[in-house]
C-alpha cells in the first residue's frame, strides 16, 4: 500500500456524517465539533434537502471546524459544492456523477469515495478511480430511505474488503455495540450518522466507538 493510501486509511477510521433532521433543535455543527474533538477522523456533509446555496454555506461553515482537528472533510453527492468549499473530496452514490468523469476533471489530490454493496460494484468503482468505498448497509439504516430494510452483513463486508486494494468503510446501523464486528472484517473504518447526530453526548459516543473499533482490530492482530 502506498504512503498516500496508508494515510487515507488512517483518516477513514471514524467518519461522522451530518444529518440536520436527527440533530433536531440542537446545532448540527456543534454536534460534529464535539465528535471531531473527541477523535473522529473524518466528517462528511450530507443534506439532500438543502439547496445548492444552503449546502455551500453549510460546507463553508464546516470546513474550518474540520481543519481545526486536521480531519478529512468530504461532501456527499455534490462535486461542485466540494470544489467550491475547498473540501478534501466528495462521496458519490448511484445517482451521482460517474467516478471516472469526476476523476478526469478533479484536482490531483482530490479524494473520491463511492458507495458499493457488492464485490462487482466495488471492483468497478476501484477501476474507475475511486479512492475509498462506503459499503453497506451493514446492519440496516433508518437514515437513507432508498436502502431501508437492506442489510448486507459483516460477511459481505469482509468479501468486499478482500476484493479491492482501496480502503473500505462500513456504514449502516454501526454503533458502539457492533463497531468491533466491523473492525474484524478488514474494513479501514466505520461511518456513522444517527449514532452521533442523535446522541445526547456525541463526544462520549465517539470515544466509545473508537474504543470498540480498536478492540476489534486488536482481536485480529
Helix and strand topology:
Layout: H1 3-11, E1 14-17, H2 20-23, H3 28-37, E2 42-45, H4 52-68, E3 72-76, H5 79-85, E4 89-92, H6 99-105, E5 111-116, H7 119-128, E6 132-136, H8 153-163, E7 168-171, H9 179-183, E8 189-192, H10 194-197, H11 202-219
Parallel strand pairs: 1-2, 1-8, 2-3, 3-4, 4-5, 5-6, 6-7, 7-8
Helix pairs in contact: 3-4, 3-11, 4-5
In brief, what are we looking at here?
With 221 residues, the chain is an alpha/beta fold. It has helices spanning 3-11, 20-23, 28-37, 52-68, 79-85, 99-105, 119-128, 153-163, 179-183, 194-197, 202-219, and strands at residues 14-17, 42-45, 72-76, 89-92, 111-116, 132-136, 168-171, 189-192. It has an 8-stranded parallel beta barrel, surrounded by 8 helices.
Task: Tell me about this structure.
It is built from eleven helices and eight strands. It is α/β, with parallel strands linked by helices. The chain has one domain: Aldolase class I (TIM Barrel, Alpha-Beta Barrel), CATH 3.20.20.70. Strands 1-2-3-4-5-6-7-8 form an eight-stranded parallel beta barrel, surrounded by eight helices.
Amino acid at each position: 500500500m502506498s504512503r498516500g493510501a496508508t494515510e487515507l486509511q488512517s483518516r477513514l477510521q471514524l467518519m461522522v456524517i451530518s444529518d440536520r433532521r436527527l440533530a433536531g433543535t440542537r446545532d448540527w455543527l456543534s454536534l460534529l465539533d464535539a465528535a471531531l474533538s473527541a477523535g473522529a477522523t473524518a466528517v462528511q456533509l450530507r443534506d439532500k434537502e438543502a439547496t445548492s446555496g444552503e449546502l455551500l454555506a453549510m460546507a463553508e461553515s464546516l470546513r474550518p471546524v474540520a481543519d481545526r482537528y486536521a480531519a478529512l472533510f468530504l461532501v456527499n453527492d455534490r462535486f461542485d459544492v466540494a470544489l467550491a468549499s475547498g473540501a478534501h473530496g466528495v462521496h458519490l452514490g448511484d445517482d451521482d456523477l460517474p467516478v471516472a468523469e469526476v476523476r478526469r476533471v478533479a484536482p490531483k489530490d482530490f479524494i473520491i469515495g463511492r458507495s458499493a454493496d457488492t464485490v462487482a460494484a466495488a471492483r468497478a468503482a476501484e477501476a474507475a478511480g475511486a479512492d475509498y468505498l462506503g459499503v453497506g448497509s451493514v446492519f440496516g439504516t433508518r437514515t437513507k430511505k432508498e436502502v431501508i430494510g437492506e442489510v448486507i452483513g459483516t460477511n459481505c463486508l469482509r468479501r468486499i474488503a478482500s476484493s479491492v486494494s482501496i480502503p473500505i468503510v462500513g456504514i449502516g446501523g454501526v454503533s458502539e455495540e457492533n463497531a468491533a464486528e466491523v473492525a474484524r472484517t478488514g474494513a479501514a473504518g466505520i461511518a456513522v450518522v444517527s449514532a452521533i447526530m442523535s446522541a445526547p453526548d456525541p463526544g462520549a459516543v465517539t470515544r466509545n466507538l473508537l474504543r470498540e473499533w480498536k478492540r476489534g482490530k486488536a482481536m485480529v492482530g
